[in-house]
C-alpha cells in the first residue's frame, strides 16, 4: 500500500511523476481491495489514504511552482522535463481556471504539471487548497471505487490476474505510442 501512495504522491506533484500510471494504478488498487488476497485494508481507508497522498502531492507541486516555477518556464527541454508538457498544462489552466485543479486530476501528464503552473501563476493559495482537496478526493476515491465495484463481478474476480495483466498492458500502450511519435518527429 505504501508503494501505491508513493506513486500517487509522485505523479501528483513531482515533475518526474508524469510518466507514472496513476489512473490504472488506482483502478487496480480497487480491484485488489475487492479481491482481498493482495490488499487487506478496507475500501474506505484505501480511498482516504489515496486522496491524502494525491492532495499532498499537489500541495508539493504548487509550493514547488511558487518557489522555482518561473525558472522552469525559462529552462530548455531536458531528458525528463519537456516544455510541451508544461505548455499543455498552461493551456489547460488558462482555459479552465481554478476548476482545472479538479479537472486535471483526470488527465494524465496534465495532472502532474497543473499544480506547478498554479503555483507559478500565483493562484490564491486558499483557492488552490479548496480545489485540490475536492479534486484529490474525487479522483482518489472515484477511480478506486470503480475498480472495487468491477472487482465484485464474478468473472472479474475469477480472472483477476489476467485483468491485471490487461490493465498493465493498456497502461503501457500510451507510452509506446508517444515514443513512436517522438521517434517519427525526429526523422
Task: Give your account of this protein's structure.
The chain has 187 residues and is an all-alpha fold. The chain has helices at residues 2-13, 22-35, 43-74, 83-96, 100-103, 110-121, 125-150, 154-158, 160-186. The longest helix is centred in the first third of the chain and has 32 residues, at 43-74.
Provide a concise account of the structure shown.
This protein is mainly alpha-helical. Helices cover 78% and strands 0% of the residues.
What's the number of helices?
Answer: 9
Number of domains: 1
- Low-confidence regions: none
The succession of helices and strands, N to C, reads HHHHHHHHH
Mean pLDDT value? 80
Strand content: under 5%
How much is the radius of gyration in Å?
17 Å
User: What is the helix content?
Assistant: over 70%
Structural class of the secondary structure composition? mainly alpha
Shape type: globular
* N-end to C-end Cα span: 42 Å
Q: Please outline the major beta sheet.
A: none
